[in-house]
Amino acid sequence: MKSQLKERIDNLLDSAKLKRTGPRRTILEILLAGNRPQTADEIVSAMGNTRPNKVTVYRTLENMVVSGLVHKAFVGERSQYYELADKCTEHQCHPHFVCTGCGRTSCMHDVSVSMATSAPAGFVIQRQQVRLEGLCPECA
Q: Domain ends where: 37, 55, 84?
């Protein structure tokens, strides 16, 4: 199983034309294991004692965003959330659900939301992100 994960991570990095560095591999492993959008601070915390400094993590995340491997899912309470970009298109991200009880964020891959087709004069829609709020099953 571990070798399959390593192979998947290496394939993701290769497809994005990024070097296979330790921090990149670790960040991808955390994002894959978390199965939900995470803040840079959550990623740094999950890296444990072997993590590089925060600046390296932020720069690595930004490089992954520029390459299209990772995207910024949304901003919540002054924190940017990151996730793999493999479940979204260039113009639309899958919906996310934020529990107003516990604060946990969940990806809603099976929920479809129609793409906005019109905007007021002068506005150009480049990307659509939907954030749903309510209570998760544990808090309901």
A: 84
Residue 13's pLDDT is what?
94
Contacts 24+ apart (CB under 8 A), 24-33: 24/60, 24/64, 26/51, 27/57, 27/60, 27/61, 27/64, 27/70, 28/64, 28/69, 28/84, 29/5, 31/70, 31/82, 31/83, 31/84, 32/5, 32/8, 32/84
Global pTM reads 0.73
Question: Reduced to 3 states, what is the DSSP secondary structure of residue 132?
Answer: strand
pLDDT at 91: 64
Both structure tokens of 108: 């809603």
Same-domain check for residues 17 and 76: yes
Asked whether residue 76 falls in the same domain as residue 91, the answer is no
